[in-house]
Amino acid sequence: MAIIKAFPVAPKLNFLSKRKLFLAFSAFLMLGSIVSFATLGLNFGVDFRGGILLEVRTNGPADLGDLRSRLSALDVGEVTLQEFGAPTDVLINIQRQDGGEGAQEAAIQIVKEALNDTVEEYRRTEFVGPKVGGELKQAGFLATVLAMAAIGLYIWFRFEWHFSAAALTALVHDVIATVGFFSLTQVEFNLSTLAAVLTIAGYSINDTVVIFDRVRDELRKYKKLPIVEVLNMAINRTLSRTVLTSFTTLLALFSLFIFGGEVIRGFSLGLIWGVIIGTYSSVALAVPMLSFMNIRAGVTSSNDKDETGDAAPAAS
């Protein structure tokens, strides 16, 4: 509560004076993310690449070296193991076996026999074929593109094309930066982390719309001020709301990351990064971009009216 009371309601920070620096940093971040994705790729989970996934609970603290040695001797292809939350829980990924469903079932049975004396419980057993994994990749990509297109159309009708272009640029920036984050950290990318990417897009556009609403109000109110001053004013007058909303969201996400367990760790980590980068892009990318567009004081949605009741002037 003390932090909230101490935060200035309307600071007077000159964000627009650094707009070229912000744009350069954003361009560098996007380029770095693209290079990371092209060189390192994503650490796709079984959801996307297909294969066998076993979540096991051992009799005592898991000896990963012993388990890895046993599985390597089975000739079932590439096997990866990782501790999954508690010291007794282990996640085993096995590459897809040649053949159909019968070959996968046979491989699972061989693994179970090899680990029989060390495993107390098989908590999860999953198999995803390569066709299903490929379809999920396509569906996930399509869902992301359609969501961003729908958001862009909404901003266009709600405001003007200038705002839509700026918002879409910020959204693309956030998505690419998030994919780059997963590529660089090699955190497993599965359906839950894809959900995190879509959630980030929604969270980011929410911040952007709030600031754009204030930008539109200030443009109607201060028609004779330079556009840079009006944009600065709009950012500062919404800054406390933006920062405090992100801060409280991060508190919840860090709690999920620390106490939520491995199942949602990738999801919560992606959202933590997304909230940070989404807040940055709303303030330091989306709004400053308007200053480079053909926008002037008085621009509003064509459905709005100015303070005198007449139709407000449109963008030139």
Automatic annotation (TrEMBL):
Gene Ontology biological-process annotations: intracellular protein transmembrane transport; protein targeting; protein transport by the Sec complex
Residue intervals passing through the bilayer: 21-44, 139-157, 164-185, 191-212, 243-261, 267-287
SUPFAM superfamilies: Multidrug efflux transporter AcrB transmembrane domain
UniProt main location, coarse: membrane
Membrane disposition: Multi-pass membrane protein
Gene Ontology CC terms, in alphabetical order: plasma membrane
Homology family: Belongs to the SecD/SecF family. SecF subfamily.
Source organism: Denitrobaculum tricleocarpae
Function per UniProt: Part of the Sec protein translocase complex. Interacts with the SecYEG preprotein conducting channel. SecDF uses the proton motive force (PMF) to complete protein translocation after the ATP-dependent function of SecA.
Subcellular location: Cell membrane
Keyword Transcription regulation assigned: no
Protein known as: Protein-export membrane protein SecF
Subunit record text: Forms a complex with SecD. Part of the essential Sec protein translocation apparatus which comprises SecA, SecYEG and auxiliary proteins SecDF-YajC and YidC.
Taxonomy of the source species: Bacteria, Pseudomonadati, Pseudomonadota, Alphaproteobacteria, Rhodospirillales
Domain Protein export membrane protein SecD/SecF C-terminal: 113-293
InterPro entries found in the cross-reference section: SecD/SecF_arch_bac (IPR022813), SecD/SecF_bac (IPR022645), SecD/SecF_CS (IPR022646), SecD_SecF_C (IPR048634), SecD_SecF_C_bact (IPR055344), SecF_bac (IPR005665)
Keywords: Cell membrane, Membrane, Protein transport, Translocation, Transmembrane, Transmembrane helix, Transport
Gene Ontology MF term list: protein-transporting ATPase activity
